[in-house]
Amino acid sequence: MMGYAPICQFYVLCFISITIANCDIKKEALGADNEIRVICSRNDEDAIRGFLSSIFSDTIYTPEPEPLNKLRFGRPETYNDLRRQAYLVVAAIGQDLTNPGVRLMKKLLSKDDFQSMQSNDPVLLSKDLYAKNQLFLVINARDQFQLSATVESKKELIRDQYEEQFINRQSKYLFDSHRREDVEERFSNQYGWTIKVPWGWEVIRNSPDSNFVWLGRELPFQWISIHWQIGNIITDELTIGDYVWNFPKTYYGNIRFHDYKFSMEKMYFDSYKAWMCEGIWEFSDDNTAQGGPFRYYLFFDTNTNRTFHINTILHHPGKDKSIMLRQMDLIAMSFRISS
């Protein structure tokens, strides 16, 4: 889950043959946070795609399967145009100088670094080389077998760094410029909890009698709701499943959760032991074929003796949903109990 992987050591890559002027002020890295730009030769593309796909294998169902990270391949001659991308991979296999990827790698690395990577560790990661908030991954393998052998040792390291960068970049986009601080303060004073509310989000419903708050944004439809009740209702999976299954009918009225790709797992929500459920929602009117992905968090706060339910729902038919779904996760994860 997003935001809960331990902080791992990453390898610092020194480009001896690249000179970057110290007086240059690095600008923010470019590109979407669900796109990884990969530069390699056409001959190496299948092997590099296989290696990266084994690392970035996460898929969400919206209800169609959608990868969290999309690999976009370019050729070595595009390097100068793409070198400020936020998620950049430069890759080559072998030492054949007729391979343009190898020629580019020899320009980027010193002779000693080139040989060292092919003899020892073919995968290295650097941060902020050409731009702020940039991850620069270099793959310089002797052959495909050497590269394949590094998957397990590198997988969590690389995933953690990419996840951390996604959180940093998207949190800055969502929260650092304008927020609905008036709404946040109102919830803190009224209920003893707060949640970061980005600019453009509105309060759809605020119902103190039923302990229910519903936030939303249109075009596309993004909903986040918070419900709480006195006592700890988290007993077993069956009870939790019943609460989750009945929640949309009780509080939204016209939607329901579907059993397609429905899953439950234990996790930590901030410091709370929690359950996370995810799947597909749909309108309860069988004649309306509309829906999308949802996530649902359930945890108990001992200090206030309250069980909290936080639900995110997205409706964006025919469009890329992975970034928006993860943005709503960041908003949900900003929830804090203040008293």
Describe this structure in words.
The chain has 2 domains: about 35-175, Chitobiase, domain 2 (2-Layer Sandwich), CATH 3.30.379; about 180-335, 3-Layer(aba) Sandwich (Protein Transport Mog1p, Chain A). It is built from 9 helices and 16 strands. It has helices at about 45-55, 80, 100-110, 110-120, 145-150, 150-175, 180-190, 235-250, 320-335; strands spanning about 35-40, 60, 65, 70-75, 85-95, 125, 135-140, 195, 200-205, 210-215, 220-230, 255-270, 270-285, 290-300, 305-315, 335. It has a 7-stranded antiparallel beta sheet, sandwiched between helices. Strands 4-1-5-7-6 form a 5-stranded mixed beta sheet, with helices on both faces. A two-stranded antiparallel ribbon has the order 2-3. The longest helix has 25 residues, at about 150-175. It starts with about 35 loop residues before the first strand and ends with a strand. About 30% of the residues are buried.
Strand order of the largest sheet: 9-10-11-15-14-13-12
Low-confidence stretches: 1-23
The CATH superfamily of the largest domain appears as Mog1/PsbP, alpha/beta/alpha sandwich
Backbone structural class = alpha+beta
Pattern of helices and strands: EHEEEHEHHEEHHHEEEEHEEEEHE
Number of separate strands: 16
Q: For the CA atoms, what is the radius of gyration?
A: 23 Å
